[in-house]
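TL;DR need structure tokens for one chain.
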Amino acid sequence: MKVLRDKLSIWISLQNKNGNLKLLIIATLTWLVCFIKPIVGKTYTSWDTHDLGFVNFLYFSDSLRQGIFPLWNHFLQAGTFFPSFNNAGLYSPFQLFFVALSWMINPVYAYELMIQFAVLIGGIGSYLLFRTYTNERLIALFGATAFAAVVLVPIVGQIGFVVSLSSFPWIILACINIERGRGGPYHYIALGAIGALYVVSGYLWMNIINLLIAAVFSIGLFITKFMGAETKDKKALSSKVKNLFFLLGTASIIYGCLELPGYLSMQFNYELFSGNYASPEPRLRSINIQAQYHSYGNISQALIAAIDPRIYINNEIWVASLHRWSYGAGWVLWICFLVFPTRRPFGQPAFWMALLLVALMYSAGNGNFLGNWVRHLPIINANRWWILGIFYVTTFLIIVVVGKILSLKEAVSCAKHDDAWRLPLVGITSLYLLVHFKSSAIEFGLLAIGLGLVWLLAREKDQIRWERLLIVLMGFNVLSIASMQFSYPENSTYLPNTGPDSYSQQVSARAKEVFIAQNTRQLGKGHDYIYNDEEWLLKKMPFSHGYNNLGNPYYWYVKNEPFLERLVVVTQNVRQEKIVERSNYASDNKFVETMMSDVLADMGTPTIDAPHFLNVLHHHDFKWQLNELRIEPNMASMRVTIDAAAYLIFNNVDHPGWEVYVNGKKTELIRANRIFQGVFLEGAGSYDVVFKFRPMLTVTLLLLPYIVLFLCLIAYWQKKRKRGKLHAN
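>> reply
TL;DR here they are.
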């Protein structure tokens, strides 16, 4: 024990000497301030992180625990395709690690750790990014804590946003390393694959924006280098450009493979539509016609939201039109940005300033020309939450501010104060805003402290005291952001998790089996806006209500009809479905309504698709019996006994990849009631019927990233082996 204490003492002394201990303490305190309640288990993260993210995570975890790799979910909405845009990340090593961890600790806590780990990834990435430009580790840490606390922590309720934004500094860092000639092709192919496996847990729109920014950033770097390079140096630059293509190309291909199954599933669901379908559920997106675009009304609203949304909290007119879950950068970063001049270039400041302006205009898209332009850009216009631009405003702001603080540090001994006129002007303008919006006392206090710390930082000449002031400024920035969740009403990021009936306890007591043995489905009674009623999750009860924004659009029209109460029905009483052509209707909605009204016209008599319809001789005393039923994530097996030919209808949504076997022989799958499955049983007897979900393309696409990583590992090992032989000789 004494030896261990001595070693620990030596290590602490060494880290203290190197300055690492100070950085570690600051980073740890930042982490505790931001996550103390989830860390001790008193809260868990709410919003879509829970409603969508954790629900899928827990189902995936329970399935893997029982040895099943889930590609289908029978419990929700009469069956849904599982590797969708919403949960493709569950098939990546990042989430799989925490899935495995959830078998050893409470899944709620395991998921909270995954959220914190994603924030940590962003913090480390931003620190390393700033370190590429400076040896001042404390300034780099200022940028890292700002990025983690100001950009990532406020949006933990949207885990997809956190993952995408936390990957951004890593992408830019990789581009810088390529330009500086670090690493070879295999290195960047592997890096691209690893990056794609991480960001697949993120938000599709943000991931595309990140790649576009990285591409433009890299083009700027290489053009600058190429213009001033000699002929021999231009050849070296061309190899670096190839490495950039390896990185971005591999990341794009691997990411595309992981998202392609969800895209193909959506294409199948909407393949008969012309593109103008608008879901009856107002919160669901349409195909080409977006639901309401959520943006700030104009630049001034977006700018004030980017500073601190609390400054308009008492103004009912503004609050009515603004979304409350975008925290803004806080006072510290904007004061530093406006007060400190930049004495030398830092990481292409003009580029980041231009992006900051574009992001600010985007977040106010409905109030300027940019909005109309973006609406016509494919994929980019898929995002209706334009206020997400504020997150990018803050990200670019941090990059610019770090450069300004670095310039200030280098001129710390200079007697001239460049903020002599800037600081009072910023202070007066900010004070006017607070008075105008009748802000609370806390806002005036935050502004005063922020201005005071910046004033001292600009005038302190002693290096040690200057660093201490920077640490105080860093801590104040984190605390002011962390306090928003308590001072900003109707913006609860966390839900309580204490007491004997806490959510953690409910999850622990859940039914862990993912098998269905009863021939019943619960029709939903909840509100239409509920993503996933959790009764199916905790009790493993097949559930019909709610919505899946990527699921079959036809299902919306029948989701609570009585014929869905049974999972399996055998009947002789069927009718041929009506032939309905899309070209005969003015809109997709009229087309769908006509088709589904055919189903609803006689719910006691299911429709059968024309190629498989047969006139069955009806027996008024027809009898059938379901002897066995077992439904699991990728298969449904049942044994039925009938006394005459009949149709077996399985109320599971049809999808490419499903096959049906009757007594071991593959048989044609029938479409029943337009969107469900069935099979024809030719005569009296006992039948073993098995529905199997085998989407081979989906499985191949999900395995491809692992194959690429394995090949990269082999190539790296062989290259290292050759180097070893050369050194030996």
